[in-house]
Amino acid sequence: MSNGYEKGFTLWFTGLSGAGKTTLTAAIAPELKARGVKVEILDGDEVRTNLSKGLGFSKEDRDINIRRIGYVARLLARNGVGVISAAISPYREIRDEVRTAIEHDGAEFVEVFVHCPIDVLAERDVKGLYKKALAGELQGFTGVSDPYEPPVNPAVTVETDREPVAESAAKILRELERRGLIPAAGARGSGA
User: Fold this and answer.
1) Which of 12, 19, 91, 164 is 20 to 30 A from 44, comparing alpha carbons?
2) What separation, in Å, do the N-terminal and C-terminal C-alpha atoms of the chain show?
């Protein structure tokens, strides 16, 4: 039953709140499953609720949260699972630490920068958090009053203010194909 694509990997989405990480996850996960890839999703909001409850938003707490996501991703990826992590993960150093741990276990770490300008994010934001942060009413908000360090050399950059979801998803899938982590669209695996 082997399709030759059992090597685990972590597809690590990083970007500001509302940039499209969860939307892209929803577009890519079914496609990976259709190609016979075992997939698990580690969504930042769900992890905060179920694995990191009680953590705040200090740098130390954010680092602990990302280390926890990275630890679970590493365990899954080294066991042949395609992991999608969708978390802001604002600090470059901790993302690099997670990358090193995952790659040390023989799995690939594919960093995807989900980029969207703050003015567009503020327009998209139904809760009005960006507007409050930009007005100084909300402190510690990533990308406004708290730092976000974009990747220096991501495997893929998607620009969700300029690209439709399907175009961004296709760029990411092509990178996974190029690395030999998933079969090409025409050479689908045995399915889910």
Assistant:
1) 164
2) 12
* Token duo for residue 100: 């090193």
Flag residues of the chain having pLDDT under 70.
1-5, 52, 186-192
Residue 128 has which token pair?
Answer: 């009005």
pLDDT at 150: 96
* Residue 180 dihedral angles phi and psi, to the nearest 5°: 75, 20
Name the active-site residue from 85, 89, 168, 190.
89
pTM: 0.90
CA torsion through residues 34, 38, 39, 40, sign = positive
User: Which strands, in side-by-side order, build the sheet including 9-14?
Assistant: 39-43, 82-86, 9-14, 108-115, 156-159
pLDDT at 4: 53
